[in-house]
Every structure is written in C-alpha cells, then in structure tokens.
Fold:
Amino acid sequence: MPSQSIRRFAYLAYVLVGCAIAWGIYATTRPADEVALTLDEPYEQVRQQSRSTLPAADPEMFWGGFVTRPARLRFTDPRYGFVTPSAKFLYVGTNKYGKVESITLSPQIETLSLDDTMAVLTDLQNQLRRGGWRLIRVASNPAITDTPAMRASIRSRTDPITYWLADNKYQIILDVRRFINESRSNDERYLITLRLSGPPLMTDSPGS
Structure:
C-alpha cells in the first residue's frame, strides 16, 4: 500500500510539473493582446477585431471600457496609423452612439527608467512624423528629444508635453511625468500618457 501511495504522489507531481511547463510555454508564445481601432468605429466592432480584455458594452449606461490585461494599441488609419508598446492602462472612450471618440493610455506596463522612457517617446514621435502627423505649438512645446537638456527638464518635473495634428482628422497629446518615491528619492521612475481624439481640433497659433 505505501508503494501505491508513493506512485500516486509521483504521478500527480509529474502531472503538475507537466501542466506548469505547458502553461509556461503558452504564456511565452501567446500573442500579445492588441486593441486595433480607428476613431468613429463602433465599439463592439473594435472588441471583435481586437485581441483584448475590453468589456462588452452596457446598453443602459456605457461610455467606454478599460483593458484588464496589458495590450498595445494599433491605430489602424491607413495613413496616420501607429503602434504603441503594451499598456497596462488603456481606455477606449465612446460617444452616445457607441462609436469610439477617444483613446487614453500609458504605453508601458510599469513606471519606466529615464532611458526606457526616452526610447519609447523617441519611437512614438518618429512613427508620428513618418505617418504625416504635424507637431504644433513648437515654440512653447517642442518635441521631446533625447538630449541632456531635455533629460534635465524631465528630471526637474517640468512635465514636457507635445501636441500633434493629423490633417483635420485627429489630434494627440503626448506627455511625460516623473514620480518620486519619498523613501527612495534617487529611484527615478516615469510615466508617459498619450491621448488621441478627433475634432474639434487644437489650433496652432503663431508663436505658440
């Protein structure tokens, strides 16, 4: 009898190890979640064409949805499209007709080091430029570039912000903020926020 118990225990152990290995393989090979959309698409259509945890719309009271598992944003406009890194915080806002009118996200799954922050910001802004987005209000809000002066500005918590337009269709507000942990004042961590919406659009006033 003891030998049978030992064999059963060994069998269960092998099963558990096998399940753990299988789950590890699945977790590392499963495609990353992705929210694929452009503005003015029906929210439910976005849910169907995306691989994400966006919740179903509540017809009684619904103004958008948050993902509950990190997902990247793929903005699918054929000319002005771009892709972000995975975001732990990603919100799709809708209008009263159930169509997408805005997206707000932080394209990261945790607060980032300054080096990683600059890499993400540089890539996003390069994608926007290649896609034909135009940086506006440059005099007061220049591009967030990876220079010693800009890094010093970000470290000093000036919270740089940039404004981008895509013809008369879309606008993006992109900014970065520093977080300081009082118990670890030398631990620099940063949060990027990207807000995408449509008209009415910002204006590019002379000298702004």
Notes: The chain has two domains: 1-30, 34-197. DSSP finds four helices and ten strands in the chain. Strands lie at 34-37, 64-66, 72-75, 82-83, 89-94, 100-106, 134-136, 161-166, 170-181, 184-197.
